[in-house]
């Protein structure tokens, strides 16, 4: 008899560090806005909330723990969702900056990018005539000449100080097939133990394109490296590819990630007014596919998390 499919974990990436205020009036920037959108997304069905911070003065990405502490405890108190803190920050942050708040907070989960890469949305700048803030245009255009650094030594350090020492588990962000092999290397080294939660990312310039065939390739490669039962996979589709690729992932037995970090839109030409709108949309799709949505407690059990009572915020 076939194994019944998992309930589907919905992750929501609330704000990120890629989009800028000019791109959408609905992008949450202040601690209040981030908290409100995160809480609403959890109420809509997101079991995991993936969090970055923004400077409340002008919306630029920040790694300042003092900003994180203005909204993370508020989200914790208002929801049962798993709080997942970025270790990626932005391409302009040092590793020490990126880890400043995660090391303080010791969360249940953190994101972990599995390789250095070109990561850019610089062509978007050509379509914008006026910018709200002076920092935005050079920030977006400057991505063309930056590398998102995640060396083997960086990854090893994060696995040690957060994984081994803080009991944090990871959303392993894989932007390319080679990132799966990097993850397999750390499994072979004994630095990563299951259950693995692999986030396949499609549609970012510098990584895997949004072709459906790439999703099949990623899944087949993960099967070879880890065995079908050795991991759980989720999918992030950037921009307009969000809902089609997530629907495909769900049919294949995977989990899904939405949020204004990944796409500013709800549909063709329609800006999403909140992360919760995207959560509600993917939940409707899952319902139509006769798939059940995981609660935070069920997500914790599937991913082997240490529990909300074991964090430091």
From TrEMBL:
<keyword id="KW-0862">Zinc</keyword>
<dbReference type="InterPro" id="IPR008567">
    <property type="entry name" value="BKACE"/>
</dbReference>
<keyword id="KW-0479">Metal-binding</keyword>
<dbReference type="Pfam" id="PF05853">
    <property type="entry name" value="BKACE"/>
</dbReference>
<dbReference type="GO" id="GO:0046872">
    <property type="term" value="F:metal ion binding"/>
</dbReference>
<dbReference type="InterPro" id="IPR013785">
    <property type="entry name" value="Aldolase_TIM"/>
</dbReference>
<keyword id="KW-0808">Transferase</keyword>
<dbReference type="GO" id="GO:0043720">
    <property type="term" value="F:3-keto-5-aminohexanoate cleavage activity"/>
</dbReference>
<protein>
    <submittedName>
        <fullName>3-keto-5-aminohexanoate cleavage protein</fullName>
    </submittedName>
</protein>
């Amino acid at each position: 008899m076939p194994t019944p499919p998992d309930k589907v974990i919905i992750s929501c990436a609330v704000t990120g560090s890629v989009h800028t205020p000019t791109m959408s009036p609905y992008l949450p920037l202040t601690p209040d806005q981030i908290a409100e959108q995160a809480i609403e997304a959890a109420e809509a069905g997101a079991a995991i909330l993936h969090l970055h911070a923004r400077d409340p003065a002008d919306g630029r990405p920040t790694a300042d723990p003092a900003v994180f502490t203005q909204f993370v405890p508020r989200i914790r108190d208002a929801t049962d969702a798993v709080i997942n803190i970025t270790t990626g920050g932005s391409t302009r942050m040092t590793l020490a900056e990126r880890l400043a708040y995660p090391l303080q907070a010791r969360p249940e989960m953190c994101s972990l990018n599995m390789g250095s890469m070109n990561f850019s949305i610089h062509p978007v700048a050509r379509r914008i005539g006026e910018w709200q803030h002076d920092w935005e245009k050079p920030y977006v255009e400057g991505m063309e000449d930056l590398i998102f650094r995640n060396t083997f030594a960086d990854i090893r350090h994060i696995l040690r100080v957060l994984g081994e020492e803080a009991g944090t588990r990871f959303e392993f962000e894989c932007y390319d097939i080679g990132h799966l092999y990097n993850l397999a290397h750390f499994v072979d080294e004994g630095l990563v133990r299951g259950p693995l939660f692999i986030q396949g990312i499609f549609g970012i310039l510098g990584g895997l394109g949004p072709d459906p065939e790439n999703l099949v390739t990623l899944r087949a490669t993960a099967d070879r490296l880890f065995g079908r039962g050795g991991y759980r996979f989720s999918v992030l589709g950037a921009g307009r590819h969000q809902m089609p690729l997530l629907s495909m992932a769900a049919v294949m037995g995977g989990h899904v990630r939405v949020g204004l970090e990944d796409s500013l839109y709800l549909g063709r030409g329609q800006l999403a007014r909140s992360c919760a709108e995207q959560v509600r949309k993917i939940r409707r799709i899952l319902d139509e596919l006769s798939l059940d949505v995981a609660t935070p407690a069920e997500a914790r059990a599937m991913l082997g998390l240490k529990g909300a009572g074991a964090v430091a915020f």
